[in-house]
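S1.2 Input.
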Amino acid sequence: MRVFTNILILVAGVVGSGVAAAFTVTVIAEAGGMGSCFEESCGYAALFMAFPLTWFIMFSFVLMAMLIWRRKPRRDL
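S1.3 Output.
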């Protein structure tokens, strides 16, 4: 049962961090944060450069939180 729960949490983390990364990169690209947009090409920079990097960083945060949250306390008897 614990393995099934971990898989569900990982899938939720992948989907959640992907949606958050897509939203973040879309907002940044529309605001002009990707640099100068030559012939409206900031969408390509957002899609192929910023989105994978942002998704990787956000999913790393999900994994760190999962490892910290799932850590069992040490029992000294």
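S1.4 Remarks. The CA atoms of residues 34 and 42 lie 6 Å apart.
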